[in-house]
Each structure stands twice: as structure tokens, then as C-alpha cells.
């Protein structure tokens, strides 16, 4: 995947489809990883930073949707993911 361009509608569609197939723990981990990547790009490559932020937001948004209606903390998600590994 090239980070030379801004995120497109196709990128968001791909990230949303991927997010739907991920576990809560995978979503949490992937959002965290993308946020860290965005932080690494800050001040160096603003386009890549934005793409990583968009990807992180997409995963976080899916996780938020899933959590609506149920009370699950990030710690519980982490512990479930570790128990499944």
C-alpha cells in the first residue's frame, strides 16, 4: 500500500470491510498500531499521517459501534484477546 496519496473512498471501504471481520481485540490493536504509525509520520509526512489516522478512526468507529448497547471496557477487550491467543 502506497501512502503517497490521501485516503480515498475505496480505502475507507476496504478498511470498513476488514474491520467487520476482525475481533474486538484485533480492532483495538490495529487502531492502536495505526495511531502509533501516524505519530511517527507527524512532522515528516502529513499525508501518510492522515491516512494512518483515517485507518485508526475506521477501526475505532467499528469498535464503538459494537460496544454500543453493551458495557465492555478496553481492559476486558485486551484480556479476552490475550485469552484467545
User: How many beta strands in the DSSP annotation?
Assistant: 0
Distance between the termini: 27 Å
Structural class: mainly alpha
| Main pleated-sheet profile | none
**DSSP helical segment count:** 4
Low-confidence spans: none
**Helix fraction bin:** over 70%
The sequence of SSEs as H and E is HHHH
Whole-number average pLDDT?
Answer: 85
Shape: globular
Radius of gyration, Cα only, in angstroms?
A: 14 Å
Strand content: under 5%
Number of domains: 1
Describe it for me?
The chain has four helices and no strands. Helix 1 (9-20) runs parallel beside helix 3 (46-67), helix 2 (24-41) runs antiparallel to helix 3 (46-67) and helix 2 (24-41) crosses helix 4 (74-84). The longest helix is centred in the middle third of the chain and has 22 residues, at 46-67. It is globular and about 40 Å long. It is an all-alpha fold. The chain has helices at 9-20, 24-41, 46-67, 74-84. The model has no long low-confidence stretch (mean pLDDT 85).
What is shown here, in short?
This protein has 85 residues and is an all-alpha fold. It has four helices and no strands.
Secondary-structure map with pairings?
Elements: H1 9-20, H2 24-41, H3 46-67, H4 74-84
Q: Which terms would index this structure?
A:
85 residues, mainly alpha, 4 helices, 74% helix
Amino acid at each position: 500500500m502506497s501512502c503517497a496519496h490521501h485516503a480515498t473512498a475505496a480505502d475507507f471501504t476496504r478498511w470498513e470491510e476488514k474491520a467487520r471481520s476482525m475481533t474486538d481485540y484485533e480492532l483495538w490493536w490495529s487502531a492502536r498500531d495505526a495511531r502509533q504509525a501516524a505519530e511517527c509520520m507527524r512532522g515528516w509526512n502529513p499525508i501518510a499521517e492522515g491516512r494512518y489516522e483515517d485507518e485508526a478512526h475506521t477501526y475505532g468507529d467499528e469498535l464503538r459501534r459494537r460496544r454500543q448497547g453493551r458495557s465492555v471496557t478496553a481492559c476486558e477487550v485486551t484480556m479476552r484477546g490475550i485469552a484467545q491467543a
